[in-house]
């Protein structure tokens, strides 16, 4: 292989640089030349990339040395192993004459030029272009992000890189044509997003209620719509209604929160009963497709039958039934193949009635009996007798009339001889009323009707008994077959019995049931109406109910419905629009039964104009403007009244929101009222003040007790000016003359008049108001200072004032301002930091005027721990009540943290870092939520892994942890003598110590394990324990303790569990986790109270 081939193919690209190192003679010394030999060394150095695996080994030759042993090559590339050095040594002999040196140098330069030409030729033959025609500058070897192909003379770039030499970082999908690529990242054009700008941004960023996936919002479970802004309705209204702001509005015939239920049929009752049939009816409904009627004998449900009844029919006769049998009849409404809950009826068929009399007799030995006969009331003799199956001789006479007396003759016989006839009488029983039904039932009445009996009777008797056992009985004339039961209780079930009587004889009792309607709320009225609220009240119903329902509709059919507790008899309608009349319906409910609706009207007030201001005020005019009202109105009315009682009133168009008041007098204060009108209805009046400018007279340089007044001088010749000023309370009036050359005077009054005089004549007076400044309060000083507050007192000013403004500044620079009344001369500051200084200032005010401020400082008493690092130190600072406190991590003032301190359990001093007691807060959270913490420390919450790490590490204090568990009637606890949470790098690994307590040791199982959430799996189970057990915890494989599980869940291992105490299938309703310094104990400490968690009342 030639040297050329070796360079071009196996050694790769030749990167050339020329290093010319010359040990050249100095400038020749004239007239003679040096006697030393002059040597010039020309070196050409080339760096060749040779892979370490290549068979060709390239080493640099030894460096050339000078006569004194020094290197003739410069440091740098000459020392690199992959350099090839072409070296030419040119030695010059000592010239004979000094002038020969110039010729020798010329020869040397010619040889160097020739050498360079030879090297150029060699570079041309071994260049990259010779190896790969057309390639340019491929010496960069694909920038380390690809491989070079000699076959294609190009780089094959690794994924994520592009360019001829793979020098540019590629962007995903070339930014999809919707952005530009910068350093491998897409900068998307609006509205496109994503790593590759491949899809448009989600509308409204999914409103914070969903995740944006490739331009489409994936809404959270409770939200829907394109931008997840609408709250999802339960079950999406089951396809039987429409959803509006999370509430279902059901189609006719459907009901329930999710419109999944068909309205239950109403008024199922028995109309008629015979021996083999039942006639039932119900209230008609236009909201159903058909009815489903089923029936079966009581206790024999398996033999039931089912009938489909058309929707337009509202009664049905069930035939071919068994006599004297109780049947269960059920009725369901069916709409869109969905059946309602059943309405039940217990009905009994009539028994087979045998009406007749019978007689018994004893035959003597050898005797016989002739007859018996009976004689009916009309005297006709009948001879019909049926033998009775008794041990005695007996005869039955069937087919007789009920309640009728018959004469019976019995003749004994022996052979042909007849004995003396025996005369008997017999009376048939009174037949019972049949088809007893109740209808036309109201809140307190019910009509009972029946089919008349056949027997001759004196009267009917009706008895009705309420569910609480109260019984009433009434007689009904024999010719009547119905009666009205009165005085019934609303919403009460009654048992009704009807029978016939004649003398002392009574028929069997027929019975039915009557359920009175729920009475309607009475005296429904509307009062305390405002612009957007209205209070309605009613008289409570007498019936036992579940709740009231209040339904209100605006004139444009905007509807809302709210439930009201059964104990209440009023409700406040909120969210109303001003100036709109609402129709309000109220009814009572019990189960699926409703009372009649009571209704009233609730017209809201017209809202008042807001932000009424006056501006552009001159001597005789002022502009008044306001925010328009929301209600529909006819016009605005503006009324303005001067200080002397002069009043004007002007109408303003409803489209306008400003007007100009004209014809005003200079220097007069006007009171302006603006209100809206619609018909004879008026809004409340908004008011403001408008002070017109004085003509020319005005005060300047006003102090507490001096006011300087100036005016424009008059043009006429005068003797003097007169200044008259009167104090605001009219207690002092003074008049002073002023020289005609003067145009100002000092005064101490408020109302000032100035006029000019000549002789006894006066010009028209100019006037103004000059109010002296308010004097400030005096002797502001603190007293009764404690660790958390103190009392400020002062002496009031002499001026008449409206009140005071007290301002004090916290150590962090926050300023708090309090407005006090004019009678106040003291104020108590509370809730201050211990050992802190508070600057305090106080000013008096009257209207918009202020006095000078007076100031002082209040320094609270210091605490044992100015910056408590935990709740034990908070407790030692004389804080005895459980509640929210600020601690400081490791006692550093710059690291405050608000925590909930338990000051009662086992001596107190506990930092509570987790609580479950209501189930209102979902603990199925992401990793970030568990790191940062969530919830309200006064309710359910998690303090946060970062906070737990900061509390338990980086401090010499060793903390113990306590777990409190509680059910409705049991409690237990577990304490571990060491508790520590590692850093985020260690995934917040848990370390706990030895156990003691009554709940059993569940936490040691989790010792040494990292924290896991559904989006950060750090456990050793095959699945994600947080995902399968619905929480975040230090899961192993998976848990014995799951305090952050799903509240109330009883499925195995998915609830709030502490396995040694209640197992894996009991969700513990109260759990609290807390830490404090190990071995800490404290006697009860008396101190100021803080906010508490409901007085430690645990609810779950």
From TrEMBL:
Record's keyword annotation contains Iron-sulfur: no
Main location: secreted
Record-linked PROSITE patterns: EGF_2, FIBRINOGEN_C_1, FIBRINOGEN_C_2, FN3
Signal peptide: 1-26
InterPro entries from the UniProt entry: ECM_Regulatory_Proteins, EGF, Fibrinogen-like_C, Fibrinogen_a/b/g_C_1, Fibrinogen_a/b/g_C_dom, Fibrinogen_CS, FN3_dom, FN3_sf
NCBIfam families: GGGWT_bact
Protein name: Tenascin-N
Organism: Saimiri boliviensis boliviensis
């Amino acid at each position: 292989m030639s040297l050329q081939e070796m360079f071009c193919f196996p050694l790769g690209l030749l990167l050339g640089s020329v290093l010319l190192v010359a040990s050249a003679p100095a400038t020749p010394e004239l007239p003679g030349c040096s006697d030393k030999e002059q040597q010039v060394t020309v070196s050409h150095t080339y760096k060749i990339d040779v892979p370490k695996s290549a068979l060709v080994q390239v080493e640099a030759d030894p460096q050339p040395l000078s006569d004194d042993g020094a290197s003739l090559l410069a440091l740098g590339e000459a020392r690199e192993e992959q350099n090839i050095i072409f070296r030419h040594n040119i030695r010059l002999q000592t010239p004979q004459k000094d002038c020969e040196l110039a010729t020798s140098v010329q020869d040397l330069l010619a040889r160097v030029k020739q050498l360079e030409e030879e090297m150029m030729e060699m570079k041309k033959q071994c260049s990259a272009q010779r190896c790969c025609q057309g390639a340019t500058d491929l010496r960069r070897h694909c920038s380390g992000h690809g491989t070079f192909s000699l076959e294609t003379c190009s780089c094959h770039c690794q994924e994520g890189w592009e360019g001829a030499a793979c020098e540019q970082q590629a962007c995903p999908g070339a930014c999809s044509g919707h952005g530009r690529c910068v350093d491998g990242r897409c900068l998307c054009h609006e509205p496109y997003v994503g790593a590759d700008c491949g899809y448009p941004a989600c509308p409204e960023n999914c409103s914070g209620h969903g995740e944006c996936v490739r331009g489409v919002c994936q809404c959270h479970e409770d939200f829907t719509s394109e931008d997840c802004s609408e709250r999802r309705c339960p079950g999406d209204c089951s396809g039987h209604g429409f959803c509006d702001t999370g509430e279902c509005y059901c189609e006719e015939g459907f009901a329930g929160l999710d419109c999944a239920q068909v309205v239950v049929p109403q008024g199922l009752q028995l109309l008629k009963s015979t021996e083999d049939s039942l006639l039932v009816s119900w209230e008609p409904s236009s909201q159903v497709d058909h009815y489903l009627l089923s029936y079966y004998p009581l206790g024999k449900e398996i033999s039931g039958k089912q009938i489909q009844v058309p929707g337009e029919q509202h009664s049905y006769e069930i035939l071919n039934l068994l006599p004297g049998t109780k049947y269960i009849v059920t009725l369901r409404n069916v709409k869109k193949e969905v059946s309602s809950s059943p309405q039940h009826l217990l009905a009994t068929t009539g028994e087979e009635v045998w009406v007749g009399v019978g007689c018994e007799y004893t035959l003597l030995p050898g005797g016989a009996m002739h007859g018996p006969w009976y004689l009916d009331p009309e005297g006709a003799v009948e001879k019909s007798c049926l033998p009775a199956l008794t041990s005695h001789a007996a005869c039955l006479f069937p087919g007789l009339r009920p309640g009728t007396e018959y004469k019976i003759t019995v003749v004994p016989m022996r052979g042909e001889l007849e004995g003396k006839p025996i005369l008997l009488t017999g009376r048939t029983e009174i037949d019972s009323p049949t088809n007893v039904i109740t209808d036309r039932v109201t809140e307190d009445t019910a009509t009972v009707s029946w089919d008349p009996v056949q027997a001759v009777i004196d009267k009917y008797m009706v008895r009705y008994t309420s569910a609480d056992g109260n019984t009433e009985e009434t007689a009904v004339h024999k010719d009547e077959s119905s009666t009205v039961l009165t005085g019934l209780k609303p919403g009460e079930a009654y048992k009704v019995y009807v029978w016939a009587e004649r003398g002392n004889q009574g028929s069997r009792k027929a019975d039915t049931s009557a359920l009175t309607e729920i009475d309607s709320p009475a005296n429904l009225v509307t009062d305390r109406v405002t612009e957007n609220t209205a209070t309605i009240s009613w008289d409570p119903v007498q019936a036992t109910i579940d709740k009231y329902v209040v339904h209100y509709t605006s004139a444009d059919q905007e509807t809302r419905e709210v439930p009201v507790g059964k104990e209440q008899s009023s409700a406040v309608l909120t969210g109303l629009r001003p100036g709109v009349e609402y129709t309000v319906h109220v009814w009572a409910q019990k189960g699926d039964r409703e009372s009649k609706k009571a209704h009233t009207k609730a017209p809201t007030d017209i809202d008042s104009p807001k932000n009424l201001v006056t501006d552009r005020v001159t001597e005789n005019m002022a502009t008044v403007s306001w925010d328009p009202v929301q209600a529909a109105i006819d016009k605005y009315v503006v009324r303005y009244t001067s200080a002397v009682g002069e009043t004007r009133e002007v109408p303003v168009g409803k489209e306008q929101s400003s007007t100009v008041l004209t014809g005003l007098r200079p220097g007069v204060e006007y009171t302006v009222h603006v209100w809206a009108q619609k018909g004879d209805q008026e809004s409340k009046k908004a008011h403001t003040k408008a002070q017109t400018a004085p003509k020319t007279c005005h005060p300047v340089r006003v102090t507490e007790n001096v006011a300087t007044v100036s005016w424009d001088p008059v043009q006429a010749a005068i003797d003097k000016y007169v200044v008259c000023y009167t104090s605001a309370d009219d207690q002092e009036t003074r008049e002073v003359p002023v020289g005609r050359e003067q145009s100002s005077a000092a005064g101490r009054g408020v109302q000032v008049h100035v006029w000019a005089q000549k002789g006894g004549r006066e010009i028209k007076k100019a006037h103004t108001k000059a109010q002296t400044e308010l004097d400030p309060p005096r002797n502001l000083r603190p007293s009764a200072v404690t660790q958390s507050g103190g009392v400020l007192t002062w002496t009031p000013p002499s001026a008449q004032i409206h009140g005071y403004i007290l301002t004090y500044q916290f150590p962090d620079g926050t300023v708090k301002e309090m407005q006090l009344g004019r009678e106040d001369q003291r104020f108590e500051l509370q809730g201050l930091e211990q050992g802190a200084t508070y600057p305090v200032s106080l000013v008096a005010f009257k209207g918009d005027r202020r006095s000078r401020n007076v100031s002082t400082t209040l320094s609270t008493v210091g605490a044992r721990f100015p910056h408590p690092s935990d709740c034990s130190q908070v407790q030692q600072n004389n804080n005895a009540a459980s509640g929210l406190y600020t601690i400081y991590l490791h006692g550093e003032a710059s690291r405050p943290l608000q925590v909930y301190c338990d000051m009662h359990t086992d001596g107190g001093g506990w930092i509570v870092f987790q609580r479950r007691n209501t189930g209102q807060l979902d603990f199925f959270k992401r990793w970030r939520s568990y790191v940062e913490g969530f919830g309200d420390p006064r309710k359910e919450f998690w303090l946060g892994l970062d906070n737990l790490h900061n509390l338990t590490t980086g401090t010499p204090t060793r903390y113990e942890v306590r777990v409190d568990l509680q059910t409705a009637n049991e409690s237990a606890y577990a304490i571990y003598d060491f508790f520590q949470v590692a850093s985020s790098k260690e995934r917040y690994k848990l370390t706990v110590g030895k156990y003691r307590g009554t709940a059993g040791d569940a936490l040691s199982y989790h010792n040494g394990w990292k924290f896991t959430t559904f989006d950060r799996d750090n456990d050793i189970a095959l699945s994600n324990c947080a995902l399968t057990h619905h929480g975040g915890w230090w899961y192993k494989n998976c848990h014995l303790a799951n305090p952050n599980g799903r509240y109330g869940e009883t499925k195995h291992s998915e609830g709030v569990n502490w396995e040694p105490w209640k197992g894996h299938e009991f969700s513990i309703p109260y759990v609290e986790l807390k830490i404090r310094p190990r071995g800490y104990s404290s006697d009860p400490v008396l101190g100021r109270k803080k906010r508490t968690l409901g007085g430690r009342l645990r609810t779950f």
